[in-house]
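#dry-run=false #mode=assembly
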Amino acid sequence: MTTIKILAACMLMCILTGISVFLKLKTDNTKIAVVDATKLFSQYNMTKELEGKAKIKLLAMGKQMDSVETLLNTVKALKNENEINRLSNVYAYYKDKLEDQYTQSNREINELVWKRLNKVIDDYGKKKGLHLIIGANGMGSVLYNDDYYDLTNDAVIYVNKNYEEGN
Amino acid sequence: MKKVTNYMLLIIIVIFLGCKEKLKPLQYAQFVQGKESGLMKVITVDNWDFVFQYKPYDYILLMEQRTKDPDFNFKKRMENLKGTAWFNISVRRSDGNISPMRYNLGSNEEYNQRLNYFLNEAVKNIRLIYDKKDTLMPMAYEFENNYNLSPQETMLVGFKLPKDEYYPKKAMQLTYDDQIFGNGTIKAMFSTDNLKKIPALID
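#status=ok
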């Protein structure tokens, strides 16, 4: 009878140890997260606002370029060589300017947004008790992940709340 | 009998909810300036601290009272403040080692540009969204020029609330677009809950 009791106690202890080990491993596993960096960047309210502002500027420049193009087409139809040359230069100038502006605003937005996001993602990781956040960006750094580790949506909510409320 | 008990319970609940916490001047000032109150927010971006401080009317009066002016008319001043919302926006380096005006300064001209920005331009980059729908532009603005004696620069800004709002009681989002140090838009939300929890000031 005593032997049976000892055996039962041993089995119970084994089961409890197994459960603890399983839970520990499970907790440790969730301390790694994957966040889609591209989605995080594009869905960040700051990015949307900055892109909105840049778009207005770029559209205005685009309209200037379109006007010059219309004029150029008119003089081409009239076969006025001097004017064609002059307006071709003006058109090329506006086109270059637009491309430069586009590149510059993209660079500025990237710089500004990541400067902000890096710190907020740090805070997010600490608050969630994560050891590692892997940034998936479609460039091949993460070849496959299922939803288990994916915290992209949660991270998007967190960074936007932080941006809007300043907490 | 049951009805009377219910009414009494209701009255007690109403009185309890209507009673605001009362604080003495020092505790009141500490409450308003404390992070826990939700009336002061510090947003850190790239080693810059942006401090947004909401100033309730009692707090403004408390600060102004320090002048010990015997002719100070509280009632009149309170009347002036009605229908407005006031904030301080401070900018400082997180390490607090140097005045923002002098940080990474290239020339005297650059210093003057920064000073001119804070004196005349920064006001255009500040706005308040009241109750998540009304965008308000500042009605008053002042840059506290401390001549680099303090490692932080402070802007005082006031907004006129929408009609029929005697004091700020709905959520307010203060936005400052930092054009001088290149940190972009900084926002701070002062929630309805935090505004409701502001204690009363007792002398």
